[in-house]
Each structure stands twice: as C-alpha cells, then as structure tokens.
Amino acid sequence: MSETTEAATAAERNTSADEAGKAVFSVRNLWKVFGPKAERIPHDESVTGLSQAELREKTGCTAAVRDVSFDVRKGEVFVVMGLSGSGKSTLVRCLTRLIEPTAGTLEFNGDDVIGMDKDRLRELRRHRASMVFQNFGLLPHRTVVDNVAYGLEIQGVGRAERRARAAEMVTKVGLDGLGERRPGQLSGGQQQRVGLARALAVDPEVLLFDEPFSALDPLIRRDMQEEVIRLHSEEGRTMVFITHDLNEALRLGDRIALMRDGQVVQLGTPEEIVANPADEYVRDFVRDVPREQVISVRRAMRPCKKGEADTGAALEPDTLVVDAVEAVARSGEHCRVVENGRTLGVVDNARLLNVVAGLTGEEDGGEQKAVAAV
C-alpha cells in the first residue's frame, strides 16, 4: 500500500463513529486490473509497487485503480479528479459494478456491493444510485418528458404517475415548457439537463456524475455547475462527481480525491489541497489557483495581540480570504475571526496578502504553526 493511500485510509478511520455510520459508499483497498491473470496482481507484492509502465512490461497488465480507499459521506459532494488515464472514470464505474473490481471491498450503505447477485445489483442501479454520463444518452424519438420518465418506466411505474413525476423534474432542472420537445430540438446544455432530470426522477440515494459537462461550452458548463450547486443546496443529496477540471472540482466539491496513475495522491477539502499539497504533483496541479478564493480566514489568521480580541469587525472562520480583504479594506483595521462568541484570532492586511502571495510556514515568519494550534 502506498504512503498516500495509507494516509487517506488512516484519515478515514479517524472519523467519528457517527460519520462512519453515515457513509454511503465505503471503499477499501480497491483494485481494477486489466490484462492476463489480473486477479493475481493485487496480491503479488513483487509487482504492486511497480509503475504503470513497469507493470505492463513485466505482467502485460494495466492497473487502472490501485489500492484505493475512501468513504463518501451522506449528503456531501465527493469529487474524484485527475487527468486523462488517471483511473477516475474506471473508479466511478466500479462503484456500481458497471466495471467489475479485481480486488478490495465496496459497500453501499453497509451492503456488500461486490457480493450482490444480479437482482440486488439491478435494484442498486435502478433505484438507489443514478448515473449522469458525458454523452447524454437520450432517446431521440421520445419527448423530453418521456426521456425523463424512462427510468421510472423500467421500474414498472404506471404511465400517468411516471409522466407526472417526470414533469416535476423537468421543471426542477429549469426546462419548464420544453417537456414535449425532442432532444434534437434542444441545445447541448438543455440535453444535459434532461439527463440530470432523468437521474433525479427515480429519487436515488446518490447521484454519480461521470464528467457530465466536459463536452459543453464554457458558459453552458458554468450554468450546469450552478444547477448542481442549487440542487444540492435544495435537496442535500449525496453526489459523486468525476472531472478532469480543477476549477470545477474546487467549485463543487466538499472533498476531493485527486488521482494519478490509478492511485489517490491526496484526499481532502478544496482548502486543504490548495493550502497543503501532498507532493510536487499536487503542488503543480494547484499552482495557478487563486488562493484567496479557496482559503478561509481560519487558515489565514494569526494569534491576537494585546487588545485585539475585542476590536475589529467579526468574521466567521469559514469566510474566504477574498471576502475578508474587502472587510479589512472597508474597516481600515484588522478583523476578528469569531466562532461561538470566542475570538480565535485576527486577520489583517499582511496576513491576507501573504495568502494571496502563497506565503506560508517559514516564508510567513513561522506564525502559521502558531495559528494551527489556536
């Protein structure tokens, strides 16, 4: 097991018993290997540590997913991101066994997914977890409403009931008035909304998105991201979102698993990944991210000096630095970071400018360590 995977697994095990009980997906030491005698690879210590190129040369196999462990918590947007070939799409397909895992354990709300027979697996895919793909997969001869109702039709829901439910979902995703059009009469963004409505119509416990917006124009893509954010805010539905776009991941994700060569190289909140990249690869990945739009004042604050704990405007710990800059500029003095009536620390022009400039740790006078202890 790699050090990064061990760290991710340890972090998951350290969650509270309550959080662990609320895990929707629980994944441990998952492998997907393609090639001859693939089932031997995860258990052969002489090859598990090889690079992808070395593994192919020695065994003829490719490990698309390598010893991956994580939990998806109920109600969160869990983003899996990475470049092409990183294993992210293979991983999301393993979650419902659209692709069969080679080794490891996989649970959905405590149920053993790998041990499910065909009937239980069909029930999982039809009722409990819905997938939204990059290619919309709409039936061109059906209207928008009938496309949205298709999953309910497969479930055996009566025509009147499924069309009524579908009409609700059409309105929910912003396509009111377009229910009787056919896919060919819609824009790309509208077609993707139909795909989203179809996934929502079966009322799944979790939505799985496999790079659903990557083929859309930038402005339409941003609209669809806003739609996902809105739907999550309204419903609190658990979502697993696959993307190769860092900005999309940072915008949507409560937590992000960053993959490379089939492995999770870092798992954390957007702020954790931007502020504390695990290695040089992650550091390069986030180098151009506007830090002030991701990092909060909890991380930017310094300890209070004498008299500062009771002066200055109050900010919540999750306030982004970009918003704190405006508050400090408006007041002309430091601002307090306050939680439950207690001042945790303060931010001033110097602290905020350091975040924007990417100065932390030793470059920041060592104060960051003191902040972490507050």
Automatic annotation (TrEMBL):
UniProt keyword Transport present: yes
Keyword Nucleotide-binding: yes
A Pfam family it matches: ABC_tran
Domain of life: Bacteria
Any GO CC annotation of this UniProt entry: membrane
GO BP term (any one): response to osmotic stress
GO molecular function: ATP binding; ATP hydrolysis activity
CDD domains hit by this protein: ABC_Pro_Gly_Betaine (cd03294)
Domain ABC transporter: 50-286
Keywords for the protein's UniProt record, in alphabetical order: ATP-binding, CBS domain, Nucleotide-binding, Transport
Family that this chain belongs to: Belongs to the ABC transporter superfamily.
Protein name according to UniProt: Glycine/betaine ABC transporter ATP-binding protein
Species annotation: Streptomyces cacaoi
